[in-house]
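Example record used in the benchmark description.
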Amino acid sequence: QVPLVESGGGLVQPGGSLRLSCAASGMFMRINVMGWYRQAPGKQRDLVARITPTSTTTYAESVKGRFTISRDNAENTVHLQMSSLKPEDTAVYYCNTVPSINRYWGRGTQVTVSS
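Model output (structure tokens):
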């Protein structure tokens, strides 16, 4: 089982910023398309950003221009820089491969955007 560990969430005011990190052991991230997903209460889990092994990125329309996904292959980490946060960005954020693999879901990190 690949341990994917998310971190960096918290409480932030609207318009603020947060940087999420996802760490995994070994070569796992270097050879897979990785993504950040989020799940708000009562809603399905959705993919918000993805990055290929060669760092090509794509974003959901709802976060385009505000979120930036990046990867550090040397550190086996994937990051999500979030800015201009809105209350509707409130969710638990997870990382996983794209497409996702059930056994790789971690605990996620809570992001709450509120004044």
